[in-house]
Design the sequence.
């Protein structure tokens, strides 16, 4: 790692001044897991780290909040994955977030990794993470995965870059219709879908935050008594690994009929992939194994695999069916 | 005894340091290290900032107050091993993916390779060296030995720390132990014995 300066601002203003003063070199640090990884690999070499964990003002308080807010819930950006996984206030309605947090990375990494950092971490693509390679994301002319090794790359929504979005929490939060509050020169609250950028929008960035803008918290809307949600992932190793595919589902279930259905697949596309096709197949219908199979097929109908990742199609279909069965309480067929 | 006779294998490796051991490797072949890559520090930051050079750091290490001068870019693992000569936490992946470097920071199991030394300013750090008291192994360490919970031993110092963080809990089930060591890679596959040892130690310490 290249030597750097650490700043420990106490207020959002100080933090933003610090980050704005040197927009090219100064970066915000939360748990530091992704940042230190990139700095060790030599793909990032900031001259200053601006610590978010010491913020002691009102913003800092919101960034550590976890619990009810209005008729919904708030999860501060500095809340760790371990805190989320242990939190008992999510209930069946928001179980997807607890399950996602508890499945990501390892227990010790979860003790450090934060919600904000998890959403804003950079892609795991091995070409992007290699200091000696200049891929599209780093100002090069081509996504090296297209003609290279692409086992873990996108099968949906790819092009010109074929990264998959790395954030497990993003998958669950998208299913839960979360909003995120951002504070920069001005404060704004946006739907989580507006946080992420497709490579067609901007191949070099994955999110819409400007340098110095701080993600303050995620806000989960009101959940009815009949809301259910769930999350699952498949990995080469059960722990330690990023998923090959993940699925998060939310629905309201009344007398077996599903409404307000959200279906999101992770690690298959450059953004958390909301499948409107699967949602349409399920919306307003009674839950059944046959319908779930149909919805899973619809979710992957547009998939365009690269050389090494066609396996993700049946994998994501099977995973989505499994989560649908569990959330809707329909026994899995033999 | 002559000075020569007192050179131990461990001391020798410490003395040569990674730089010496790796001198023959091309840069691209070198395994990742926790040490700096030798580039020049950027210009000094404004007032209130820490670094880029060595800056004062104070924390408690295994019950003893430590005062050191550490540069901000040095990881906790590197500071412990290379500056303070506490070599219980091991360097394996250096990327948060194996758990060999696990230490307790205020009682919480953390990957010391993915923390900066200055993150523990004012905190209490426990490494495997801090488990034994006055030369007597801890209940957990004794249980590891009884249950043969190690083979090559390379994951053991980290494994012990993840398990130690569990022991305060009142009701400990097999699943709790399995979940707690899910970040500690053991290439020898000693997991079942580790789980047995921790359950045994939990009974003993209750
Ligand atoms: C072995 C291993 C396995 C892993 N497996 C998974 C997995 O399965 N799923 C998964 O999702 N992740 C996984 N990860 C990644 C890990 O979860 C992320 O690196 C971590 O969540 C990042 O959070 P952080 O707080 O450490 O972020 P940091 O490293 O501190 O920050 C990441 C980025 O976000 C920016 N940032 C952070 N917080 C804010 C904020 N509040 N406002 C504005 N900008 C901010 C930083 O500037 C930086 O660019 C794994 C990591 C390891 C080491
Ligand atoms: S050396 Fe720190 S986790 Fe592997
Ligand atoms: S005992 Fe050899 S790695 Fe665990």
Sequence:
């Amino acid at each position: 790692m290249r030597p750097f300066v650490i700043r420990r601002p106490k207020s959002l203003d100080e933090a933003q001044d610090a980050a704005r003063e040197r927009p090219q070199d100064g970066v915000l640090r939360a748990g530091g897991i992704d940042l230190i990884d990139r700095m060790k690999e030599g793909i990032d070499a900031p001259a200053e780290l601006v610590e978010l964990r010491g913020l002691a003002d009102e913003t800092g308080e919101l960034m550590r909040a976890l619990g009810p807010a209005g008729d919904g819930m708030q999860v501060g950006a500095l809340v760790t994955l371990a805190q989320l996984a242990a939190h008992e206030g999510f209930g069946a309605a928001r179980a997807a977030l607890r399950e996602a947090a508890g499945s990501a990375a390892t227990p010790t990494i979860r003790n450090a990794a934060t919600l904000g950092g998890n959403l804003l971490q950079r892609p795991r693509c091995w070409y992007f993470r290699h200091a000696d390679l200049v891929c599209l994301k780093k100002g090069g002319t081509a996504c090296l995965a297209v003609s290279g090794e692409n086992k873990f790359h996108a099968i949906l929504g790819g092009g010109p870059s074929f990264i998959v979005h790395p954030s497990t929490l993003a998958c669950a939060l998208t299913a839960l219709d979360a909003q995120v509050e951002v504070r920069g020169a001005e404060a704004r609250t946006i739907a989580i879908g507006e946080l992420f950028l497709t490579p067609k929008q901007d191949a070099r960035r994955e999110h819409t935050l400007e340098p110095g803008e701080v993600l303050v918290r995620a806000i989960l809307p009101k959940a009815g008594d009949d809301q259910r949600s769930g999350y699952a992932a498949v990995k080469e190793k059960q722990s330690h690994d990023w998923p090959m595919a993940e699925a998060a589902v939310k629905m309201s279930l009344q007398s077996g009929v599903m409404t307000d259905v959200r279906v999101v697949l992770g690690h298959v596309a450059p953004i958390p992939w909301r499948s409107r096709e699967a949602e349409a197949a399920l919306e307003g219908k009674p839950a059944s194994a046959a319908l779930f199979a149909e919805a899973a097929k619809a979710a992957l109908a547009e998939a365009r695999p690269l050389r090494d990742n066609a396996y993700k199609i049946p994998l994501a279909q099977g995973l989505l069916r499994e989560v649908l069965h569990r959330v809707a309480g329909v026994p899995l067929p033999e | 005894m002559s000075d020569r006779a007192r050179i131990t294998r461990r001391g020798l490796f410490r003395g040569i340091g990674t730089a010496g051991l790796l001198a023959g490797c091309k840069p691209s072949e070198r395994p990742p290290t926790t040490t700096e890559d030798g580039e020049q520090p950027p210009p000094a930051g404004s007032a209130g900032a820490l670094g880029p050079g060595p800056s004062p750091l104070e924390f408690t290490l295994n019950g003893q107050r430590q005062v050191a001068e550490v540069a901000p870019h040095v990881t906790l693992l590197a500071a412990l091993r290379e500056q303070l000569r506490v070599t219980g936490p091991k360097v394996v992946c250096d990327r948060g993916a194996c758990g060999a470097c696990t230490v307790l920071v205020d009682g919480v199991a953390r990957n010391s390779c993915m923390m900066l030394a200055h993150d523990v300013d004012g905190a209490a750090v426990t490494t495997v060296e801090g488990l034994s008291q006055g030369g007597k192994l801890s209940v957990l360490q004794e249980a590891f030995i009884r249950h043969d919970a190690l083979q090559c031993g390379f994951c053991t110092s980290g494994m012990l720390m993840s398990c130690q963080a569990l022991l305060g809990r009142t009701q400990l089930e097999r699943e709790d132990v399995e979940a707690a060591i899910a970040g500690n890679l053991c290439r020898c596959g000693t997991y079942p014995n580790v789980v047995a040892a921790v359950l045994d130690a939990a009974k003993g310490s209750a």
